Protein 1
Amino acid sequence: MRGKVSRRTIFAFIGPAVIGLAMVGIAPLLYALWTSLHFFNLTKLKKVKFIGFENYWTVLTDEVFWQAMGRTMFLLGTALPLQLALGLGIALVLHQPGLTLIKTLARLSLVLPMATTYAVVGLLGQVMFNQKFGVVNQLMGGANINWIGDPENAFVMIVFWDVWQWTPFVALVLLAGLTMVPGEIEEAARLETTSKWTVLRYVQLPFLIPGLVAVLILRTADTLKLFDMVFTLTRGGPGSSTEFISLMIQRVGFRGFDQGLASAQAIILLIITIILAQIYIRVFYKEVN
Amino acid sequence: MNFRKLMASTAMAATMATTAVADGHGWSLKEAAAPYAGTTVDVVFLLRPGYEAIEAMLPAFEEETGIKINIIKHPYENALGEQVRDFVAGGDLDIALIDLVWIGNFAENDWILPLADVQAKFPDAVDPDLDIDDFFPLVLNAFGGWNETLYGLPFDNYSGLMFYNSCMLKEAGFDGPPETWQQLKDEYGPALTKDGKYAFALQSKRNETQSADSFARVLWPFGGSFLNDEFKSNLLSEESQAGLQFRQDLMQYMPDGIVAYDHAETVNGFAQGDIAMITEWSAFYSTVVSPETSTVADCVEIAPEPMGPAGRKPALGGFSLAVAAQADDAEQAAAYLFIQWATSKANAREYLERGGVPARQSVYVEDGLEDFKFVPALVESWQDGVPEFRPRFAEWPEITEIVQEWGTKMMLGEVTTVEGAEEIGTRMEAVLEEAGYYSGEKPMAQ
């Protein structure tokens, strides 16, 4: 079969996609790489000049950059385990036999948080967590908690919204993994033991690993890029308490207009994301036979 | 800024206007706009009352001129970025909306045209009744002028005013608002902060609000400033530190989380009767006196901002409109006609009545302005204002980010006022050094 398709035909089919991807994905990356090596401020375009790795050095020695990176990693370390634990719990409940209609409705409702625009989540948060009029304080018996104006509470609020929005995604991915477990193996295991933990650990978990690795990679990348929701909710404040790395890059690039420095920050972030993804794959990923 | 040279540039613009009369030609907007009928002018507007006012008046202009004004609305926070990207990319904007702190940036990048150049290019478009001298000089200078040249005409004009709830003050035993900041803290603060109500709110969110409405507001009345005569940081001076420390002390009479308060939260808190006094822009007057948006409309009174040891020095802010260099000839002429019309003496009264704040002196001496309680305080403020309340040079967007970050940290107690001032000073001077102010490459104009 392979010999019958000409090389030209293969290129004709694949070429447009490759060119499209290159234009959408690779070209901006190359442009960012170029600007990162230049003094490139949008309001000082007459002064654009090649400065080598000076922007990278500035970023790597900038305490504020690493503080923002640390804050982002702390968010990842707080929100992701919660999402995994809750997502797994939901997936296991939905994997139980019976109650088909309710489970279908539950699956559908799980899509809603994911389908909500990030920026809208932030705006909802502003209203719901308002100290005086917000529904959250009302539900807490008229508590007077200052959510948005307190550094610690603002961080908790961001974790809450991230968990609310992305736990369903984790649940759906893990549920898909659970449906991959051959029924007869699961049934045989349940005949062997009554321990749900043993079934989960030795029968279901191997089938969940690919999904878990995908979740880890996607959620890590998403958290490192988290912008819209935080921007509309706290704008990085109060102080710098919710200034995550993507907000900092936006601030430098689009409010300070230093595109060169922002590009260097973005490229360093990209490198960190790739390294983390590689670590996840090497440490966790195992082919399921 | 050399004020005399700016006035010379202004005089040139005025001369252009009067030439039309000297020529003996009768001038009408309709005839002047006839060659440009059908032209579309793109302009950025903010989501604020002054813009809604002019938008409501717009059909009359479009009908008379045949010029279409295409308004692109942005919140303040996005307006600079959107315009910078448009000008860098050679986009569609024909008019620049310029906050007073953006003018150095826009002018130095040649994104806007000097007013005199536009008038010389399109002499038939110049209204002989433009009367540039009728603008408040401080406002015209600060909002529209840069480096001895006039670029824009003041359009959406603010001065910091004290809005106070006279009912709450009366109940607490005060006949009027505090005359000084010290009085506000020592007498009004303790008396009015109780039962979930607060004496005062100083909007301090980490954006331009932190720099302009909060940080700068406590510098100037106490004799401080961002920069000294050598363009070095003046934030560690005794006066600047007194102002910044005063803000820390005053926070006990403000709502919790004041660092998350932007204009909306502050104005709403006042309008709902939770806060007795705020220092806000004149532009929010219509919001706090409208029964639709304020439960305390009947109690609202206006005064100039309190005085500090160095005098009143109220906050100064606002926007001018200037013709964009990137527009083609027809668009430039049409843009000029719109700017001239929107800021004209003839339309100032209607603009005021619809919720705008014109910068025309003549309108404020007209009869029947009793309903506009802010007028006396506004006029007084525009006599005492400081044009460089926030430096207007091209580096401000970078410096304001630094001020926002460390100013908020000071308020949260994460650093002391001295530590914060040191950080801001070091970083601010690095930006100015890079820009070439210390090497003499750029004149020390702010």
Protein 2
Amino acid sequence: MSKREPVSNDTTGGRGYSRRAMLAGSAGLTVATSGCVRQVRTVVNRDDVEQLSLTITTLPADGDRESIQLAREVAAVLEAAGIDVSIEMRSNEEFLRAVLINHDFDLCVGQHPGGTDPDFLYEALHSLYADESGWQNPFGFANLRVDDLLEEQRRTDGDDREAAVEELLEEVVREQPFVPICVPEEHRMVRTDRFDGWEDGHPATRLGYLGLEPSEGTDRLRAVHVDARPSQNINPLTAEYRDHDPFVDLLYDSLATERDGDLEPWLAESWAYEDGVLEVQLREGCRFHDDEPLDADDVEFTYELLRDTELEEGESPSPPPQYRGPAGIVEDVERRDDHELELEVDAGEAVAERALTVPILPEHIWDDRATPATVPGVRVAGGTTEAVTTDNVPPIGSGPFRFGSRTERAHLTLERYDDHFTLRNDVDLPGPTVGELRIQIDPRSTSAIELVSTDSADVTSSILETYVLDDIEEADDTAMLESPSWTFYHLGFNARRAPFGNPRFRRAVAGLIDKAWLAEDVFHGYAEPTATPVADEWTPDDLVWDGEDPVTPFLGGDGDLDVDAAREAFEDAGFRYDGETLRVRR
Amino acid sequence: MLVQVLVQLAVVVTLMTLAGIALFVGRYRLRETRVEWKDRVRAATPITVVLAVVLLGNSVARQIVPDLSWMIDWNPTWEIYDLEGQFILWLQSFETPVLTAYFSFIYIYGYVFLLVFPVVAYFALSNTRPLRELLTAYTLNYTLGLLLYIFVIAYGPRNLLPEVQALMYDTYPQYQHLTRQVNRNTNVFPSLHTSLAATVGILAYRTRDVYPWWNLVAGVLAISVAISTIYLGIHWAIDVLAGIVLAYVCVELSRVFVGRWSLSERVALQRWLPSIRRQ
């Protein structure tokens, strides 16, 4: 405004202000106001400090009864600590889609697939995976020290590896990238009058359904599963539909199979490790269910596909959301002949074998799927390929059972694959002993139990919910089967969002969770509280649960939070309170 | 199991309907119906066809509704819970085996009877308008209900509060085979059970001069159905309120629609019938 006047004055030929004087005047005014504005700006342009408000994403009781209860208990203690909490329930596949694929969550509560070997943490926590979709680092956790230790435990063997794992676990519990809450017991109900040998294999793996001894005249194994997803999608690479179920492993073979934590030859007749190279000898004469031969080309193809589902045709790699940990061990595959391969691995012997657990996919089917998925008129996110989005019905694998039929949300029926190598006379491995494996979908544990007790089913392939266990009546021709568990319930933080990237905040939250009380109250005692996410034999002595959490003990007792102590913990972590509410800068 | 439950349901509802005919409809109206049934069927045919199409479409559409809903992804379950709190737990604190038996009976048998009987009762009237309004209101309920189900993802109380007892399924597990055919767990807002029951209730009130006793029975049944959905832990109280609102909207709309259609029908018939006859 001040500049306009002199211009008009000049043109009208003047009322005595020289141009220079005006310039000097306006410059002075600018200086004066700019100082004032800067001060205003420093006061006004600050992000507001508001109550911390977060959403816990979890499953409804129909999906996982324990998860929603845990989520509500976590919500209650967070609210007591002055945080505004809401809970969002999502169905099984939508929960995984939000957490694993889109990373669209603040906190999540659910079951983590875990693993029998601590190497699963490489997949779960390595920062290289923070930008990928799937069980590989859904938390967006990034810590160089943890990365180093993850790599060290991969490369070492024996005592060195044990020491590396110990150091890794200590760093992990210090950082609390997620809070491991408890390890649930796995109970299933089986009929003993129709089948024997239930204890020989873990019922969450293929071995649980192979080598069973049927009674006279029994040619049909009837499983009842409470989760409908296996009837909707049978793609080994679709993370949203895969969980703790054995059916993909029955349809697809892997080179090795796991028994009690150790790996045994399966599709590979043998292997040998030397200096970062796994020499693998395939079984000869194996065929896929569509009668196409299975040879070294398919194995090579599988590892390529698991590295990049576009097979290096895209602008950048599109890794699948499944099997990243084991497949990532393999750096290069060299085919020697039809049945001999060399896998160049970036790992010591102990971890290298883990690479052999991925399902071998037929090249002649999956080659066409290595292209970006398209939906007319919709922009599809980069890296979304047919391979990870197809429902893969009918699935063509080489496993001991082949696809028979399915009705969504009702059943998935598999048939014995008569050409499977386990049925050969010279192979001493458990094979399919029944002509048909029918997986009936029934949404509740109570009715699943009823189906087994009324002789309408032989096994509850899903883990029974803990609340029904006390009411199960003993009978002569049924039995309860308890199996070791490597999954665990956890509270996950999305470190991509403030303040969950702050380890001090995560540690403070961990201190609000009474794991022992939750294991007792929510799981009716059928769970073990835990401080570490790995199996007992890998847990270092000073991280063993001894009545309370050795690292982040509960601030309170018997389920009752000491609210003052909780607030102090957050204040010690650098957060502020305004009255009752925890304030953060957003 | 499902077949057994269905047969049982058919037998019980048939018996109840026969009793209802004897008690409320009466011999006089039946005699008249025997004479006039052709005209009445003709009058009710268009809307019956529409209803049948909607019901068929509904059963197909329900397969894809969950996927559509998750694409829209509006999930207000927590807000519903925040608003009404633990009302259900309070209601369930009055639980007795007798109440559970009563409300389970109402939820399955009472409900189906409540929907079937007025079709028979209104068919027995010379004036076909109540019948057509009833069928139109049913059609609207299913159509608007399905639309709401597409836009709203809401889980029932049982899913958020596992301590809410699934009273009916725990006591009579056979029924879940039936309800599972019809219901998806993300479709609880609004309560279609309530809205259809309330629809019958409102219409029964409007026809109370013709069927005074049915008005009373329908009222009691409709209120029982509404309470049963909450008591059995299937719906939130807010779903029930929304169901009542939906019922009111459907009844009002059906009144408007039936007026229009019968008018257009008359015009159309007068114009078309002579030409058809001439042919």
